[in-house]
Specification:
Blueprint: E1 2-4, E2 13-17, E3 39-42
Antiparallel strand pairs: 1-2, 2-3
């Protein structure tokens, strides 16, 4: 996880990283997440003080 202005718009955004391939080794557990997207960007759309 990291916080920064990833869009360059002056607001702080959050990026989350995920290593979901072969992470859980539990008998009978079915993986149901997308292993192709290791990052999620949460864009801050608020405009505080503007």
């Amino acid at each position: 996880m990291d916080v920064g202005d990833f869009e360059g718009d002056g607001d702080l955004d959050i990026v989350l990283g995920n290593y979901s391939r072969q992470f859980i080794h539990q008998q009978g557990l079915q993986k149901n997440w997308n292993t192709k997207k290791p990052f999620i960007l949460l864009e801050n759309n608020t405009r505080e003080g503007k």
